[in-house]
Amino acid sequence: MTRYVLKRIAVGCLTLLIASAAIFFVMEILPGDPARVMLGVTASEETVAVLREQMGLNQPVLLRYLDWLTGLFRFDFGRSYTYNVPVSELIVERGVVSLPLALIALFLSTAIALPVGLFAASRRGKTADTLTMGVAQIGIAIPNFWFALLLVYLFAVWLRLLPAGGFPGWSGGIWPGIKALIMPAIALALPQAAILARVTRSALIEVMAEDYIRTARAKGLTHRAAMRRHALRNALIPVMTILGLQFAFLLAGTIIIENVFYLPGLGRLIYQAITQRDLVVVEGVVILLVAAVIFVNLVVDLSYALIDPRLRSER
Fold first, then answer.
1. Could you tell me how far CA 181 lies from the centroid of its own chain?
2. DSSP characters for 253-300?
């Protein structure tokens, strides 16, 4: 088990190093001059040259990459061209919106998907199974931003129960902050819940065909009891894989939803940084999201050993 953990950590670190190089050098080959973008087309060449010197753009590319890479270990992502503040401050400021949003959406997705998948698998081939999976397919097909607009019309415009957008900040209280995140979290969670429900159903049906399930049934265990006691735990391995991927998507893929609800999160920060060509912010946020994805995948890999004891052996 220890060797397995160390191996996964080493693979994660190597992946992060390769990703950092890819992110930095892809940004470097983009057309345009960041200093010229900041100052505008009317700025003189002398002014642009001074700003390039201040930003360190005159240094060799490899040296700038090594400086940026060593700064990452100190949580120093550089300084934003647009906001003139450290990128780490922007990440912390916006992360307190995106992280709770992703966690709430993941909780809703899991709370909906697991019972629905269990219900559909226990009624395989019946009308209830067909209707449930049909609704799940519709949930997958509907774009989340369109569903978000429907939520705004229903709960904000018509019923006037929830705010249509914006974020009051956590300083104003926990409930107002959560209230502002409810609709975005639902818009993010329902398509993911539909995917997870279908995966849960398929995994349960596959496990229910195993020999040990038939043995349990032969000893007198009912179909539903065998599914809950034996099949569900073994079916959780593919479910956990999808959960890890979904959390990474919910954390990094909120650009559209945060713009629909005007939330000051990481997704909106990336969008604004791209439109303003603030490459330092883009690089810092993207490498942080890559690190978050790698960390979540590592946690998911380690959770396999908790679900399946066979994976705990050194071999």
1. 16
2. --HHHHHHTT--SHHHHHHHHHHTT-HHHHHHHHHHHHHHHHHHHHHH
HSE at residue 268, side-chain half, CA atoms within 13 A, is 17
Supply the DSSP string of 170-239, one letter for each residue: GGG-HHHHHHHHHHHHHHHHHHHHHHHHHHHHHHHHHHHTSHHHHHHHHTT--HHHHIIIIIHHHHHHHH
Specify whether the CB–CB gap between 286 and 19 falls below 8 A: no
Better-scored residue on pLDDT, 307 or 99: 99
Residue bearing tokens 């409810």: 182
Q: Are 240 and 73 a contacting pair, CB within 8 Å? A: no
Closest C-alpha among 237, 190, 244, 224 to residue 120: 224
Structural domains of the chain, with CATH: 2-73 (no CATH), 87-312 (1.10.3720.10)
Angle of CA points 153, 156, 161, to nearest 5°: 135
What Å distances lie between residue 132 and 60, 103, 121, 140, 225, CA to CA? 58, 25, 10, 13, 21
Q: Name residue, tokens 């978050």.
A: 292
**Tokens in use for 272?**
């604004």
Q: What digits encode the pLDDT tens for the residues 259-312?
A: 889 888 888 888 888 888 788 888 888 898 888 888 888 888 777 767 666 665
In our burial notation (b when 16+ CB lie closer than 10 A, e otherwise), range 133-150 reads: beebeebeeeebeebbee
Please state the length of the chain. Answer: 315
Q: Give residue for tokens 């920060």.
A: 269
Tell me the sheet residues that pair with 86: 79
Say how far apart CA 33 and CA 23 lie, in whole Å: 17
Q: Is the sign of the CA dihedral 3, 6, 12, 15 positive or negative? A: negative
